[in-house]
Amino acid sequence: MPSAFIDVLEAVTESNFFSEGYLLANEDLRRAAVDARTHFDAHGQFENRRQFSRQMFAHSEYRTKKFELFFPFIKSSAEPLARSFPISVGTEHYSLDTYQSESANEGFGPFIEEIENNPDRRFLDIGCGLRRRVYMNCLYLEVYPSVSADLIVSPDCAYPLADGVFDAIGCFAVLEHTKKPWRVVEEMRRMLRPGGKVFIDWPFLQPVHGYPSHYFNATREGLATLFLDNGFAISELKTFPFQGPDHTIAWVVGKFLRSLPADVQKKLMRMTIAELLAHKPQDEWWTRTLNMLPDEIISEFACGNCLIATKT
């Protein structure tokens, strides 16, 4: 029997309407201080609005059962007021308001298959963001109170979880946002049982993203070295379709163009690739074009950066 799961977001109907879930899932309504019931009655079904499932909130059957499953492995001196997820451990947490947006996806296919096919094993999703589907046998961890998160922790790259607890750990598009990714890898090894697996997605040629923090991208060699040096045997290391050069080109060219004045943007879009490449870096045309961009965009797409520092 596959692992039990909950769909985090659901279509809203007359029978399942849930005011708190409706507002949390629709940021535009929340910011406008719209009454949830009034909006749903007038527009909700016509606009195909969605809401967070009741099961994602504290004291639901899902949250309470999962708490009983995982809480024995959480290292904390404080006993929660209610025996239900979500809970926070530590004193420093990020706020969702500090992010440009919350990542939201279904997760990494091979990791999901591992979870679904092993309902009696324990899994950990580090930096889960907003998952569209969550599983009873997977603990979802974040540094801010995402609706998907069971455990909210301090962003110190150390986790309040016991040794040798998990059969597999997933960490997807997260390590570049940690101040000490090598420490996170050490923690993964500590928390895994012997023979446990890691499933990692780590960007390479991606511009700066995911505020408030983006510290380290990694080549394949860098990714391999970090895990080999921490006692892992690599079984697969490759670029998956969702990480291909097409994504790099679309991201860099698309955002770069949209950041320029409209008239310059139109001129660039009429150029052929050959015409664009005919301009050498730092020539008059590139210098004039780049001078139109704010420094934050230069930083986002920079080929490199220099540092001059003084010993203190």
Description:
With 312 residues, the protein is α/β, with parallel strands linked by helices. The protein folds into three domains: 5-53, no CATH class; 55-241, Rossmann fold, CATH 3.40.50; 245-301, no CATH class. The protein has twelve helices and twelve strands. The strands form four sheets. It has a six-stranded parallel sheet. Strands 1-8 form a two-stranded antiparallel ribbon.
- The count of helical stretches stands at 12
Helix content: 25-40%
Q: Could you name the ranges where pLDDT drops below 50 across 5 or more consecutive residues?
A: none
Q: Strand share of the residues?
A: 5-15%
Q: Order of strands in the sheet with the most strands?
A: 4-10-9-6-11-12
What radius of gyration results from the CA coordinates? 23 Å
* CATH level-3 fold name of the largest domain: Rossmann fold
CATH class of the largest domain: Alpha Beta
Mean pLDDT: 93
User: How far from one another are the termini?
Assistant: 60 Å
The CATH architecture of the largest domain: 3-Layer(aba) Sandwich
Please provide the ordered H/E string of secondary-structure elements: EEHHHEHEEHEEEEEEHEHHHHHH
Biggest sheet details: 6 strands, parallel
Inertia-based shape: globular
